[in-house]
Amino acid sequence: MEKKLKGLSHLFVTVFLSGFASFIVVPAITDVTMFALCPGTDECSLAIYVSGFQQAADNISDGQRASAFGILSGISSAAFVCATLAARFLSTGSTFQVATFVSMLAVVYMRIFLEESIPDQVDGMTQPILKEGEDVIQKDVNAPERTTVFKKIPSLGDIICLLKSSPSFSQAAVVAFFNSLAEGGMISSSMYYLKARFHFNKNQFADLMLIAGIVATISQLFIMPLLVSPIGDGRLLSIGLLVTFVNAILYSIAWSAWVPYAATALSIVMVFAPPSLRSIVSKQTGAREQGKAQGCISGVSSLANIIAPLIFSPLTALFLSEEAPFHFPGFSIMCIAITLMIAFVQSLTIRSAPSTSSDKNSSNAMEV
Fold first, then answer.
1. What ranges in the chain are assigned the alpha helix state H?
2. Domains contained in the chain, CATH given
3. Per-residue CA distances from 107 to 20, 100, 281 (Å)
4. Which of 94, 183, 184, 287 lies in disulfide reach of 58, CB 3.0 to 4.6 Å?
5. Could you read off the pLDDT of 100-134 as tens digits, one per residue?
6. How far is it between the farthest Cα atoms of the chain?
7. Angstrom distances, CA of residue 227 to CA of 175, 215, 216, 232
8. Which of 2-11, 289-298, 323-332 has the lowest mean pLDDT?
9. For 196-214, what is the mean pLDDT?
10. Which residues, other chains included, contact 206 with Cβ-Cβ below 8 Å and sequence gap of 6+?
C-alpha cells in the first residue's frame, strides 16, 4: 500500500498547490465583497447576491481505494490549512498575488512531473481506445508505436448510459448532487450569515477555517484509513453525511459566536463523506473508465454548485434583511440541513455491488 501511494506523490503535490491557490483567498472574499458594495455595514443583500452569481486512482486495489481517496482529500485539507494560515497573516491584496503565483506553479509542476498512469500497452498488447462516435477499436500491433490521445466532452447520452451502468453508481450520483447542493449553499451563505449574526471578520473566518482544516487533515490522513476496512466506505459515507447534517443544524440555530467554533469538531467525521463517495464510484467502473466515472460525478457536483447559490443566496439575503417573513436568520442554513438529510437517506439505499474494476476487467473499455 505504501509503495503504491508513493506513486501518487506528484498527484498529491499538484493537488496541494492547486488547493492552496484556491483556498488562500477564501477568508478575504467576504470582507472584500462587503467593502466594495456596502462599506461600513455587516449586512448587505447585494453582496450576497453578487457572491452567489460569482460562484455560479486506478493504481490502487479495490479494498484500498477509500484510503487512497481519503489521503488525497487529506492532502487537499492540508493545503486548506496552509492557505488559511497564510491568509491569516497576509494582507488582503497580497493573498490574491500569492494565489496567482501558486496556481501558475501548480500548472508548471503538473506538466513536468505528473504522468498518465495507464500505459498504452500492457504485456505487449495495445489497449483499446474509444474514439468519438465509434465502438471499441484495436490498434494494429505491427504499426509504428505512437501515442494517440482522443479528447472529448461526454455527451448527455454518454452520461445517461454511464448512470444506467450500475444502480450503485446512479445512487451515488444522487447523493453527490444533494451533498454538493448543500455544500454550495454553505459556501455562498454561511460567511455572510456569520458576519451579520456575530460580526465575524476576515481573521475570525480564517481562524474558524483553520481549526476545521486541521481537524479534517488529521482525520483524513490518519483516522479514516483505519476505519475503512472494519466499517466500509458505504457506512462511512452515511455517517459523514449525518454528522454534516447535525453541523448545519447547529449553524442555523447558533445562539452565540462560540457555537460555530465548537461545531468545527464535527469535521473529524464530516470529511468521511466525499472520499467515501468517490471510492464507491471508483469501484463501479473499469480501470480505464475511472476518469469518465469521476468526471461524471464531478459534473453532477458542479451542476449542484451552480444551482446552490441561485437558491440559497436569495434565501439568505431575505432572512438577514428586515423584510424577512419571520425572524429566523439561519433559515437558509436550516434548508441546507434538510438537503443534507435527503443525501443521507439516499446514501442508505446504496448497496454493495460487485466491483467492475478488477484486474480481469481492467483491459476492457466500457462502451458508451
1. 2-6, 9-23, 26-37, 45-55, 65-89, 92-113, 156-164, 167-198, 202-218, 224-231, 233-252, 258-263, 267-270, 273-282, 290-320, 331-347
2. 2-119+154-347 (1.20.1250.20)
3. 13, 11, 27
4. 287
5. 888 888 888 888 877 765 554 444 443 443 333 43
6. 75
7. 21, 16, 15, 7
8. 2-11
9. 85
10. 27, 84, 85, 87, 88
Residue with cell 470582507: 31
3-state secondary structure 206-262: HHHHHHHHHHHHHHHHHHHHHHHHHHCHHHHHHHHHHHHHHHHHHHHCCCCCHHHHH
Q: How do residues 212-265 score in pLDDT, each as one tens digit?
A: 888 888 888 888 888 888 998 899 999 999 999 999 999 999 999 999 999 999
Residue 335 has pLDDT above 70, yes or no: yes
Q: In a 3-state reduction of DSSP, which class is residue 356?
A: coil
Cell reading at 222: 490518519
